[in-house]
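Chain A, query sequence.
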Amino acid sequence: MSRMIRDEIDIAATPERVWREFTDFKSFPSWNPFIRKAKGKLVPGRRIRVKLRLGRRLVKLHPRITVVEPASEIRWLARQVVPRLFDVERAFRFERHGKHTRFVQYEIGRGLLAPLLMPILRRPIARGYAALNLALKSRAER
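Chain A, predicted structure.
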């Protein structure tokens, strides 16, 4: 069974500009309200370290990068210790729309616990997506 959470925003900047801002991991603590920290290289097959703010909690993840297409898409897979118990694939897309970029983020929860956990996580993740979207828009459009 699969569960998806998705959000998007139009940004008055090129995908290359939005990509540069989004992939500047060192700057995240100063502007990114959802992904508070990210460390590592965006190379398929490698793991990165991520700290997400979910409501009042900070959650540490070590997802494996699965897709990197500069100025187009980043995808990663976060797995719990036991595969297919609760796996989350997260994607960030940078879609060109004329002189604008549509920034799309989504995640799909899969596994035995997904039907239980995704409804609980939906609200804090949706809030995080909305906050990240607005912060990235403000940063890329300045």
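The two ends are 41 Å apart (CA to CA). Strands lie at 2-11, 35-39, 49-54, 57-61, 64-69, 73-79, 87-97, 100-110.
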